[in-house]
Amino acid sequence: MTATHDTVPFAEAIAAFDPVLGLETHVELGTASKMFCGCPTMFGGAANTHVCPVCLGLPGSLPVVNRTAVESTIRMGLALNCRIAEWCRFARKNYFYPDMPKDYQVSQYDEPLCFDGYLDVTVETPDGPREFRVEIERVHMEEDTGKLTHAGGATGRIHGADYSLVDYNRAGIPLIEIVTKPIVGAGALAPQVARAYVTELRDLMRALGVSDVRMEEGSLRCDVNVSLSRPGEPWGTRSETKNVNSLRSVERAVLSEIERQAAVLRDGGRVIQETRHFHEDTGRSTPGRSKEQAEDYRYFPEPDLVPVAPPRDWVEQLRATLPEPPAARRARLRAEWGISDHEFQTLVNAGALDLVEQTIAAGVDSAAARKWWTGELARTANDRGVELAALGVTPQHIKRLEELVGAGSLSDSLARQVLEGIIAGEGDVDEVVASRGLAVVSDDAALLEAIDAALAEQPDVADKIRGGKVQAAGAIVGAVMKATRGQADAAKVRALLLERLGVSE
Ligand code: ADP
Ligand code: MG
Ligand code: ZN
């Protein structure tokens, strides 16, 4: 089933062809109840427990639109600089598949709630940051499908499975779909533009509070359309890589598809209009179903729902609730913190922006706040492949930690051990300090004892220092730090040591 195509290296592909992109992004809204019924939307739960006659599509049940979902969609549309329809309807998209209990999905077709917008994104290039305007075709509402589990086979796919199970808990959860107009002119930056766009979209939705946009849980999924054409020629046929679910994969899906299509075209072949599946492990995609014959979903206006006609004053009220756009916020914070583009980008890449901002708001000095979140903590999060916020360390923890460091009762290395304890679930700062017995040894007598022990261990080093080789002191300081399990202040140990040996710097 895995068709392996030749590929053309990316730089060569881009030298010969212009890419056109189109991104369709589905986002699960964070409403408490489903799109057309009162069932809860929370993730998980035993199969088929969050269901009712409406989301099971039982005869005679009637849907009612979720007002909060409409409100969230309008706010998203406004934030994307869209026009908001004065009147629009839902449509039935008919297809037969067991994940859709009604045999049709309620969606919007030719009458989307929001349309004609744009989102500006910035990508880093060797010549500095470059801005792209991604035009938005439409933002519309629809309902999610149920979830199928194919059991008994080796792959988890339907082929080779003994039986399939269906869970309708997810059926009817509100989704918005955001579709871009064709993105042209990105050239070699196409993979980065695609990633920057989805990142910006995610940040925007977080800022709006309309979704928690967790890509790992599938609450944001992206279909990536790519086509290639030779300069000056009409656009080529596009492929559509479905359900790409991480930012990195969005970038890689575009890149690998450009490399693949370039090889097909180079060899005089024809790109087939089809869906494709992206594989995280290989960074490549394999063909799905052909779209050469446009499927006929027999769309027609949903007769069971009233049209959505948001009054203009409501739309204006919603416009007034829009948060500061993420790009403007980033520019403001960078200026407030007075740091370089590069330093700021490190914060952004670490996903530390909100946490650093909250830590500073809690009263921690901005350099210290940045140091903790982008240093030790970012590394730990990265090693574990989790988000920074998921480590369990809070801005309040950092505040308390800094207080103790400032008061001299914790050294940096002890503070790191405290963080380790918090991440391991041992409690808050004071609890970890108490249970692990972490405190700086500031008692001179205890330190001198450790210094004397270290000198006795390394008499040759002691002689060197006495002879004026002050650099050699590091070995003794290191031994003392080790003996005190990092609980001493290194500068103080050094000063005591030199005093003990009667040498000066
Ligand atoms: P479908 O229902 O087939 O997925 P949509 O209109 O919902 O179609 O989405 C198609 C996406 O592909 C849009 O983002 C559109 O801008 C984009 N697109 C259209 N033509 C091309 C093309 N030739 N190359 C790349 N992307 C394209
Ligand atoms: Mg599509
Ligand atoms: Zn229901």
Total number of helices: 16
How would a crystallographer describe the biggest sheet?
A: 9 strands, mixed
Instruction: Report the uncertain regions.
Output: none
β-sheet strand percentage? 15-25%
Order of helices and strands: HEHEEEEEEEEHEEHEEEHHHHHHHHHHHH
Describe this structure in words.
- This protein is 38% helix and 19% strand.
- The protein is of the alpha+beta class and 505 residues long.
- It has three domains: 10-33 and 74-85 and 107-142 and 172-296, no CATH class; 326-436, no CATH class; 444-501, Arc Repressor Mutant, subunit A, CATH 1.10.10.
- A nine-stranded mixed beta sheet has the order 2-5-6-9-1-10-11-12-13. Strands 4-3-14 form a three-stranded antiparallel beta sheet, with no helix packed on it.
- Helix 4 (247-266) links the parallel strand 11 (239-244) and strand 12.
- It is elongated.
- The mean pLDDT is 92.
- The structure holds adenosine-5'-diphosphate (ADP), magnesium ion (MG) and zinc ion.
- Zinc ion binds next to loops.
List keywords for this structure.
505 residues; alpha+beta; Arc Repressor Mutant, subunit A; nine-stranded mixed sheet; three-stranded antiparallel sheet; 38% helix; binds magnesium ion; binds zinc ion
